[in-house]
Amino acid sequence: MLSTLMIGAAEVANNTIFDTWWLAIKDQAVAGQLDFWQTIYKEIYQNVLYNNRWMNYLRGLGITLEVSFFAALVGLLLGMLVAMMRLSRVRPLEKIAGVYVGIIRGTPMLLQVLFINFALFGSIAVDRVIVGVIACGLNSGAYVSEILRGGILSVDKGQTEAGRSLGLSNWQTMRLIVFPQALKTALPALCNEFITLIKETSILAYIALTELTKAGDYIRSKTYSAFTPYVVSGILYLIVTGVLTKLLSKLERRLRQGDNR
Amino acid sequence: MITVKDLHKHFGNLEVLSGINQHITPGEKVVIIGPSGSGKSTFLRCLNLLEQPTGGQIFFEGVEITSPKTDIDAIRCRMGMVFQQFNLFPHLTVMDNITLAPITHKIYTREQAQNRAMELLTRVGLPEKANAFPKQLSGGQQQRIAIVRALAMNPDVMLFDEPTSALDPEMVGEVLDVMKQLAVDGMTMVVVTHEMGFAREVGDRVLFMDGGNVLEEGTPKQIFENPQNQRTQDFLRKVL
User: Fold this and answer.
1) Residues B70-90, buried b or exposed e (16+ Cβ, 10 A)?
2) How far is it, in rounded angstroms, from Cα A26 to Cα A33?
């Protein structure tokens, strides 16, 4: 309760309408006499409105989206490459890809992030966003490769044979015939992986990257109010993952147009 | 047109083809019959290297296709293949199924390829299905589209791997009619089939295979009316 009293008149920096509303109930707050709605307003004022604190969440959201987007891109490209390597029937390539997937899946992501940040980039000054993209991209690539490999293996062998019998090269058959079908099968799992990726960027708080989770945490450290900052961060995550789910299910419907209708 | 010399194929220790010699001339219709596991499909699939032979040579229009130096993709452009399971591309429309390879190989522009596709679709009686997806079609329709897809590359020879075996009985006829028309038009054809009526009517030469060998060959008249080999006689007694 003491914490709520710390926002005194001196801390009302800007004279917005929100500050005015706060001043109107401030004395009641000090006396601990707020009703339900006033308490809610106090929470929102402290954790979101006061001193443009909402900007912290948005900046954090921006970084989360930036890291997620580029990490997903890295993960997807890496995943395709690794899936191809594992299916290439070229022994050394298969081995390298297998070891990569084994290490990434077999160690905690936090450890990977710490290792990449402190061991690989420890002595080099690199933007933490880039470190985050590399760490999350490397991690996601392993999972994406397994998802894609499963998708490719699920495509009937006759499809490859039909493509090759038409004189298409191995790569053309893969690109034009097998891959589009594999992607359709893999899309729900891939969607899951992207959502997981967005959420797991929160681990980057450990290397002092102020993404969305860290932003909420920062506000908590300012206001000593834990409930609201984390809820705000959580809602923002839900909005992002919700929109992504919608978009991907739209794409999935489009890819399914060859199925029975 | 196609010459096969001492063709061998092993799957591990199992010998599937044990030294086949054949010569197929332009315009010839060769029909291969025989019991399951006799190696007839494997033989056909070796002709365009969908199966890699373990021994022997295959020549197509003077080029040794079993040589590692041969560009097999270029050879396959001139050899059409029709599969038992159709193997149409389910994510593409009928039109895209047909035009994919000619456009990718730059044999035709998109427009030329589509005109050619419509022409072929009309010939097999399915012009209205151009924008349908394969799964919306019956088996017989799918197989006719698959034949058109192979023909769209203007191949010199067509290979048929049991093209009617996966079809409901009432759809066999429509596919055989298309194949018969193709034969009348002079296409070189190698057909693995269980349709003895077709073999008799269309075949210039019938090969009876069993145990990885061609045990007997001749005109349909010789094979069906006066088979010499005991195994041919047994087989025909069972299927006719």
Assistant:
1) eebbebbbebbbbbbbbbbbb
2) 10
- Chain B hits for A176, CB-CB cut-off 8 Å, are 100, 104
**How many Cβ atoms sit within 10 Å of the Cβ of residue B219?**
13
B52 touches chain A (CB under 8 A): no
pLDDT at A10: 42
Q: In what order do the strands lie in the sheet with B14-24?
A: B14-24, B2-11, B55-60, B63-64
Q: Between residues B91 and A13, which one has the greater pLDDT? A: B91
Q: Is the distance from CB of A197 to CB of A74 less than 8 angstroms? A: no
State whether residue B136 sits within 8 Å of chain A by CB: yes
Picking from B36, B49, B41, the residue whose alpha carbon sits closest to that of residue B17 is: B41
Q: Residue A46 carries which DSSP code?
A: I
Q: With an 8 Å Cβ cutoff, are A158 and B80 in contact? A: no
| pTM of the entire predicted model | 0.80
Of the candidates B48, B85, B135, which has its C-beta nearest A158's C-beta?
B85
Is residue B94 within 8 Å of B143, Cβ to Cβ?
A: no
Instruction: Tell me the nearest-neighbour CA distance from B82 into chain A, angstroms.
Output: 8
Query: Who among B76, B134, B153 is closest to A164 (CB)?
Result: B76
Q: Which residue's structure tokens are 């365009």?
A: B48
Distance CA A214, CA A61 (A): 10
Q: Nearest by CB to B76, which of A159, A166, A258?
A: A166
B101 touches chain A (CB under 8 A): yes
In this complex, which of A167, A180, A261 lies closest to B77 when CB atoms are compared?
A167
- Residue A65: both structure tokens together: 């989206």
The ipTM estimated for the assembled molecules is 0.92
Residue of B nearest to A258 (CA): B91
Residue of B93, B84, B82 whose CA lies nearest to B162: B84
What SS3 state is found at B18?
Answer: strand
CB-CB contact of B157 with B2 (8 Å) = yes
SS3 track for A3-24:
HHHHCCHHHCCCCCHHHHHHHH
pLDDT tens by residue, B92-138: 999 999 999 999 999 999 999 999 999 999 999 999 999 999 999 99
